[in-house]
Write a structure and sequence with these properties.
The chain has 233 residues and is an alpha/beta fold. It has a single domain, classed as Vaccinia Virus protein VP39 (Rossmann fold). Helices cover 45% and strands 24% of the residues.
Length: 233
């Protein structure tokens, strides 16, 4: 599958939505939860409306509420299957007045210009079929001076860590993913998107190109993931 096919990305996540949370936590040894907590710590308090792009099963949106950073959140995602799983969690936690979900493509959002106080996205941007278009669209819906937080996979710098990481990412993870999800392709797609994605300074350049300023980044867990923070001009 080429990244260009947005329908297929949605269908791929539909097909793994049932196992997504379990596999996410299992394959990352639960570190993903800590990374989301750290990403939301970067968001300043007192936000009224926040957009969670590629919200999936809504863990990042729920973390915003746990840290009392916003009054309302809209979560959007291409995949109906992922959103259904997220909605189950929201209902269980009684958060349906606070978190609203919509099936949308981030490359073509339905929201007016300057709608949100902040936009967040975890493990979503590397799936965009057109990264720059997605970032520009996020910039468009963000209010001036609004905050943009991105949590995304990156690649470790140190060669010894890099060796074991690549072994895990390219060989072990697809095997376990396939075993549990019974989906032949999905857990090969994941390492491919991580291997191909621009991270660190190169991602900061993309943020500037899309109209963001004062962009900074922090590496997590030897550089396996990175948090980016940027502002709209
Ligand atoms: C790896 S999941 C991340 C889900 C969630 N944010 C998390 O932290 O677990 C990636 C999600 O991005 C969504 N996605 C990919 N491309 C998208 C796009 N162009 N617009 C909206 N959602 C998209 C997929 O459907 C999927 O649910």
């Amino acid at each position: 599958m080429t990244k260009a096919d947005k329908t297929q990305v949605g269908q791929l996540f539909d097909s793994i939505s049932e196992h997504y949370d379990f596999l996410n936590h299992f394959l990352s040894f639960n570190i993903d939860k800590k990374w989301r907590r750290k990403a939301i710590k970067e968001l300043s308090i007192g936000k009224d409306l926040v957009l969670d792009v590629a919200t999936g099963t809504c863990d990042l949106a729920i973390e915003i509420i746990n840290q009392k950073k916003a009054n309302h959140i809209i979560g959007i995602d291409l995949s109906k299957g992922m959103l259904d799983k997220g909605q189950e969690k929201i209902d269980r936690l009684n958060l349906s007045e606070i978190i609203t979900l919509k099936q949308e493509n981030c490359l073509n959002l339905s929201f007016e210009d300057n709608s949100f106080d902040a936009v967040v996205v975890a493990f979503g941007v590397r799936n965009f079929s057109d990264l720059l278009k997605g970032l520009k669209e996020i910039n468009r819906v963000l209010k001036p001076n609004g905050e943009f937080i991105v949590l995304e996979f990156s690649k470790p710098k140190y060669s010894i860590i890099s060796f074991f990481y690549n072994l895990y990412l390219n060989k072990i993870l697809p095997l376990i993913g396939r075993l549990f999800s019974k989906h032949i392709y999905a857990y090969t797609y994941l390492p491919n998107t991580i291997n191909e994605f621009v991270y660190g300074k190169k991602f900061i350049e993309k943020l500037s190109e899309a109209g963001f300023q004062n962009s900074t980044y922090k590496e997590l867990t030897f550089g396996v993931a990175t948090i980016y923070k940027a502002f709209k001009l």
